[in-house]
Amino acid sequence: MASISPASDTAAQDAAVALRGVSKHYGALHAVDGVDLDIPRGEIFGLIGHNGAGKSTLFKMMLGLVPATQGSIIVGGAQVGGRDFRAARRHLGYLPENVVLYDNLSGLETLRFFARLKHAPQTQCQAVLERVGLQHAGQRPVREYSKGMRQRLGFAQALLGQPRVLFLDEPTNGLDPQAIRDFYATLRGLQADGVTVIITSHILAELQERVDRLAIMAAGKVQAVGSVQALREQTQMPLCFTIDLAPQDATEACRLLAQATGITPEVLPTGLRLRCPRTHKMAVLAALAPLGARVQDLKMLEPSLEDVFFGFAD
Length: 314
Known about the structure:
Blueprint: H1 10-14, E1 15-26, E2 29-40, E3 44-49, H2 55-62, E4 70-75, E5 78-79, H3 85-89, E6 92-95, H4 107-118, H5 124-131, H6 147-159, E7 165-169, H7 177-192, E8 196-200, H8 204-208, E9 213-218, E10 221-226, H9 228-235, E11 239-245, H10 247-261, E12 266-268, E13 271-276, H11 281-288, E14 295-301, H12 305-313
Parallel strand pairs: 3-8, 3-9, 6-7, 7-8
Antiparallel strand pairs: 1-2, 1-4, 4-5, 9-10, 11-13, 11-14, 12-13
Helix pairs in contact: 4-5, 5-6, 9-12, 10-11
């Protein structure tokens, strides 16, 4: 496996996670194929893709659970698979997609077990239970936990040892809306402390406003990397305007908008709908200005993360 030279790649050395030319081949199947990626310290980073896109394999390689066929991976300042990685791994947290726990242990006993495995202080266990909202259930056996409570307990074990990098695979499975809100509030608190979070989820609407940047994977390759807004601009998907006005004003509004954009709006019972390139945004607003208060309402809809995802992944 090639290494990243500190002299030749300063960005990689400053990043919490850096990948260069990373591939994983299973015979003729290229599960991950030539991935380059830098994730700065203290970032909440999303990794999205279809099933089979290579996300889970990439996670396992970054954690040192699966060796890369080729390429270089640095996590927490250590080369994965190198002599310093064993120590660095104690500062990583991992929540797998499918959490497997011992039903006969209580929640607190479960955390004490994982704390011993991670060489984390036993004194952290109660505090971590409280952080994920399970302080009331710490003495109950895990077999009595709901799916959402098991998920929160899995998150709690990932927080043991005060990790500097957190890998979270579908972390909100089974959580209700309030628990999801609390979960992301916890992530923001960790981020404020300098923790790097790498998260995968199939619930794209959930990630849309909650990650700093994300990568879209397809067929083992990273298709695009950036903030949600930057990816929207890369796809050049149209904006959608909905304009509420009285029927007697629709004809004039259509004329003004067609002159400004070259596009004839769709007439609705409540007004107009117009899809246009984002470069036309200010022209649309300027065209409507002569109508003044006759425009009762105006909504501009950006492409959703789901729209952006399909724009890159299909």
